[in-house]
Amino acid sequence: MVSDQDAASQHAHPGTGTYLAVAAVLTIITLVEVGVFYVPAFKAVLAPVLITLSATKFALVVMFYMHLKSDSKLFTLIFSLPLLLALGVAIALLFLYGAFVRG
Amino acid sequence: MAEHVAPAAGARSGIWSWITTTDHKRIGILYGVTAFVFFLIGGLEALLIRLQLASSQNDLVSAETFNQLFTMHGTTMVFLAVMPLSAAFFNYIVPLQIGARDVAFPRLNAFSYWVFLFGGLFLNASFIAGPILGADSLSVAPDAGWFGYANLTSRAYSPGFNVDFWVLGLQVLGIASLAAGFNFIVTIVNLRAPGMRLMRLPVFTWMTLVTQFLVVTAFPVITIGLVFLMFDRFFGTNFYQVSAGGDLLLWQHLFWLFGHPEVYILILPPMGIVSEVLPTFSRKPLFGYAVVVYSGLLIGVMGWGVWSHHMFSVGLGPIPDSVFAGTTMLIAIPTGVKIFNWLATMWGGQLRFTTAMLFALGFIAMFVIGGLSGVMHASPPADLQQTDTYFVVAHIHYVLFGGAIQGIFAGIYYWWPKMTGRLMNERLGKTHFWLGFVGMNLAFFPMHFIGLLGMPRRIYTYGPELGLDSLNLVSTIGALLIGVSILVFAANAWWSLRHGETAGNDPWGAPSLEWTISSPPPAYNFSVIPEVVSRLPRWSRTQMRAIPDVPPEPVHVPGGSFWPVIAALGIGVLATGALLHTLWVVLAGAAVLVVAIYAWAFEPFEV
Amino acid sequence: MTHAHVTSTGLDSRKLAFWTFIGSECLLFGSLISTYLVYKGRSVRGPTPHEILNIPVTSVSTFDLLMSSLAMVLALAAVARGDRVWARVWLAATAFLGLVFLGFQAYEFTSFVHEGLTITTNLFGSTFFTLTGFHGGHVAVGVVWLLTLLVRSFQGKLGPDKALNVEIAGLYWHFVDVVWIVIFTVVYLLQ
What we know:
heterotrimer, B: mainly alpha, two-stranded antiparallel sheet, C: 191 residues, Four Helix Bundle (Hemerythrin (Met), subunit A), 6 helices
C-alpha cells in the first residue's frame, strides 16, 4: 500500500536526541513528584503541584512520543475532544458529589 | 480470501456468501432485516403491555411477566430496533453518498453486524431459556426496566438470571456499536470522493458522523457502569452496595451520561434522513444547509451536558438542578433551528406528497410535540409532577416513535428503490402512514393525560377508581392500529419485491450521489470514482462527469471473510460462559476470539 | 498493488481509526477514574489507601513504564530506518519492561490481599482493583501485541514498509503509559 508509506514518512518524527531528552524530563518530573509527596512543607499545595506535574508528563508523552506535535492536527482534534469530555465529566461528577465543597 | 474482479450480479449467492460478506450493501440489508424482526418482537411486547392495561384489574399477564415485557420492550426498541435500523442506512447509504466503494474497514463492519446479531439473540434467548437454566419458562428475561436502576439490579433484589442476561447482552451490543463507530468516522472522514468536501456532505452523512462521535464517546461510559454492575453481581464488589458506602446514584449518573447522548444517537440519523427527503420532494435545496449541519454538531456536544435532567427527582440540590434545567432548555434551540429550516425548505417548493414525504412531515409534526413536552419537564418543578408517570411515556414515544421510527420509515420508502431496484406501492404506503399516524396519536396522546392524572409507569394494573379505563382503552386501540399499519408495511414490502415497478437510477429526481448509479448498485458501487463539483451533484448547473454503466477497467472489490463472524461467535460464547458462571466456556470463547483476531490480522485482504 | 487509493485527508485510515479508539478509551478510563475519585473516603471500613499503598515500589514501576515508552519510540525509529537488530532489541525491551510492570502489579495485588484488601473488602478495594486491573489488562494486551511484532520481525516481515504497524502499536502503548501517569498521581500521590 503506497498510502501507508506516504503517511508514515509524511511528517518528520523527532529524532533520538529528542526522545532521550523527553525521557530525562519525564524521569526528573517523576522524582520531583515523589519528592513533593514526602516533603511536609508542600502539604498545602500538594494537589495543584502534583496535578500540574502529571499534566506536564501527560502532555510530553502525547506530543513527542505519540507525535501529536508534528502530526496532522486532525489527530489532535480527534483525541482532545473526547479527552476534554472525559475531563468535563470527571469535574462535573466531583462537583455533584461535593468534592469541591470545603468543610 | 484474495481479492477478485467483481462477478456479475447473481454470481454471489448462497447462504455462505452472506455469512462471509464484507459488502457494505449486503451488511446494510442484514442490519435492516434483523432489526426489523427485533422491531416486530419489541412491538409484540408493546401490544401485550397495552392489552394488559386496556382495562383496570386486568389479568392477561402476571406482574412478573409484565416487568419482563416492558423491560425487554424498551431494551429491544432502543438497542435492537432503532439503532440498528439507522445502522442499516449508515451501511447502505453513507458509502454511496460520499462516492466510496465500501467502508474503511469492511471486515470490521461485518464483525459489528454479527456481534449485534449475537447480542440480540442472547438477550431474546432469555424468553425461552428458563427451562434450560432450571427455572420456569418466561421467567428469566430481564425485568428491571430498560435503565436498570441500582439496586433493583443487585443480586439481593434480582437473584435470578434476568439481570445477568441484560448486563451481558448490553455489553456485547456495546462492542458492536463501538466497532461500527470507529469504522464510520474513518469512512466519512477518509473515503470521500475527490471534491466531496466536508461542507458538501449530504446532511444524512453529516448526522451519521455526529452520531458515531456520540457512540464512541458515550458507550465506554455505560460499559463501565455495566462492568461495575457485573462485578457486583458476579464477584461481590461494592459499587452499588449502600451498606458498604456505595451510592445508588452512581449508576444513574453513569447510565444517563450515556443515556442522554444515546437519545441523540437515536434521533440524529432520522433527522438526517428527513433532511434528505424534504428537499427532494420539495424540489428545493435544504434551507440553511450549513446551519442544519452546525446545529447537529452543537446538539452532539451539548447532548453531553444535560444528563442530570433525568435525575431531578433524586434531589441533587438547587444548583445542579438549575444548571441542568438551563442546559436542557438551551439544547432545544439548535433542535428548533432545524425544525424551522425544514419548514423553510418546503416554503415555495414544488411539494410532492409521496409516502416518504408524508413520513418526513409526520416526523416534524410529532417531533415538535415530543420536543415541547420535553421542554416541559426540563423545568424541575414540572418534572417532579411528571416523572415516572405516563406523561414521560407519552413524551418518549412522541420523540422515538413519532420521531425516530417515522423518520426511519421515511428513509425506508425513500431508499427502498435504491436498495431493491423496485418501487413500493404508494397506495399501501399511504395506508401504512395514515393508519400508523392515527394509531400513534390515539396510543400516545392520551398518555399525557393518563400521566398527569396520576398513573405511574411500569405498573402492571390499576384500580377502576382512578377513572382511567376509557383513556387506557383508547391508547390500546391506538397501539393495535399501529400494529395493523406495520402489517400493511410488511405486505407492501412483499408486494414490491414481487410486483414493484422497476425504479431506475433515480425515481425521485433527487440531488445526491447515490442516485447517479443503478438500483440496486453493482458490487463496486461506482464504475469510476466520481469527481464531485458541487453539494447537489444532480441538481447543479456544473454537471459532474457521467458515471458509465460498465467500468472502463476491472474494479477490485474485497472478497469475503469468515473471521468476523467467528470472532463475533467467540464473544457470544464468552457471554454465555459468563452467564452460566462456567470458566471453561469463557476461556473457550476467549480462545476462539483470539484465534479469529490473529487469523483476521494475517489474512491477505485488500480493500 | 497499483490500485491503492489515497484517502481524502491523506491520513492513513488505520491510524485515524486508532486515534478515534484512543479518544474512546479516554472516556472508558475517565469513567473508572471518576468513580475512584467520587468514592474516595467513602469506604465504611479499612484498609484505607494511606495504610496500604506502597509509594516507593510504585514509583519504581512508574519509572519502569515510562522507560518502556522510551524503548517503544526507539523501536519505531529502528523499524522505520530498516535497522532490524535494534528494532528487535527495542521491541523486546519494551515488552520486557511491560512484563516487569505487570510483575510489580502482581506483587502489589498479592501483598494487598495478604494485608486484607480484596476487591470485595470495601469501596476502596472495589474501585482500586477495578481501575488498576483494567489498566493492567491493557498493559497485558500491549505486551502480547509487542511480542507479536517481535515474532514478525524475526520472520523478516517487519521492514520499513511496516513502520505504521509499529507506530500504531506504539500509540496504544504510549496511551496506556499516559493513563498510568494519571493513575499514579490520582490514586497513589493524592491520597
